[in-house]
Amino acid sequence: MFTTFMFATGIENSIPTINNGRTRIDEMEKCGHYEHWKTDFDLLRELEINVLRYGPPLHRTFLGPGRYDWSFPDLTFEEIERRDIIPVVDLCHFGVPDWIGNFQNPDFPDLFAGYACDFARRYPWVQLYTPINEMFICALFSAAYGWWNEQLASDRGFVTALKHIVKANVLAMEQILKVRPDAIFVQSESTEYFHAENPAAIKPAEIMNSRRFLSLDLNYGRRVDSEMYEYLMDNGMTREEYHFFLNRSSLRHHCIMGNDYYITNEHRVQANGITRAAGDVFGYDEITRQYYDRYRLPVMHTETNIVEGPDGDEAVNWLWKQWANVLRIRNTGVPVVGFTWYSLTDQVDWDVALRQENNRITPVGLFDLDRNIRPVGRAYRQLIRDWRDVLPAQSVCLRVPVALPSEYDERPVRRQREVTRAMRQNEEEEEFQQAAQ
């Protein structure tokens, strides 16, 4: 029941709305997963991968408070269980059902927590979760950049979206732990860095480099920097809302910090605060170390890709570079437990961050949308073959208590659930006492 390293991929299930809510961008539909889901699971076997970032389409499944359409999730998760694939279940990826509206809705956290609880009860063998994907990016793109969902471009809109998204994530973790006490949460979050172009840009870059941590600071119950505290208070967060997060810091004991890194994650900042892409200046290893030094949690590289360009080897070379970064931070003491090329297939309109419906294929997958393997798919398969038996020997003490679906009812796994249930009860008692003081 213990694994030393998780080689993973994912099936993209983004569902943001654009055009003031009139257009839903459903990547599972765009990429043909609703039609080819069995074939997509076959591709995992071809890659020799058994860890999959995957989730049901929230807008099709969550029909109202306590109302669900489980028809597609039942088909896919039954097949995942039968194949003994370990899913990291992504419950909310950049959008909500129309009846909820958007992330400005204060009812969203409680509604989503109820959905997470009912999902966990329906599929109790699921152990790994990303309740809400890339919380910081979701709030930024929806309410600061004006791209998705509420399409706001204000600090107050951003803080409102962020506090609702992170609260929903925290409440979902609490509810899932009541069903599966040995659940593990992989916070897939974008790792960002902002470089000042000149001395006049130092201050705005410093503010952005503080703001990038807000989602994980709140999620892990870490006190934010003083400037960020003022920023939150000035833009609509109350002291009571802030203390809600501080009083749930014990949830971090159930978490793996997922770090996503793309070539677009580093930014050049001008004196007026305008940013542009910087490329991979520091790289995954340096930026992930900054996040690790802040939170001190096990790490998983949860997303990366790059477009296969005209030479045909651009993605292969990027895979090699990311893997070299993972090995470097692992060899210097950071407990890295997994790596992910995201996603399994090409995506659609990801070149414009889903802001427009152009129906243009972005060639970033291990397979194209005809389900033909790309060079990076072959390279990833070979990487897994080369390293999967080497890494355990390099770190015999690093173990993640992940059970295969087929092991759900076995005695060691049941025992682990009882141990973690007792641990969680003690944590809740301590949180209650702290909140009462």
Word description of this protein:
The radius of gyration is 21 Å and the shape is globular. A hairpin with a 4-residue loop joins strand 2 and strand 3 (23-24). The chain is an alpha/beta fold and 437 residues long. The strands form five sheets. An eight-stranded parallel beta barrel has the order 1-4-7-8-9-11-14-15, surrounded by four helices. Strands 10-12-13 form a three-stranded mixed sheet. Strands 2-3 form a two-stranded antiparallel sheet. It is 44% helix and 16% strand. The chain has 16 helices and 17 strands. The chain has one domain: Alpha-Beta Barrel (TIM Barrel).
Neighbour order of strands in the largest sheet: 1-4-7-8-9-11-14-15
DSSP helical segment count:
16
Helical/strand content category: alpha/beta
Overall 3D form: globular
> Could you state the oligomeric state of the chains shown?
single chain
Low-confidence stretches: none
Radius of gyration: 21 Å
The CATH class: Alpha Beta
The helix content, as a percent range, equals 40-55%
Number of strands: 17
CATH superfamily: Glycosidases
Q: What is CATH's topology name? A: TIM Barrel
Span from first to last CA? Answer: 40 Å
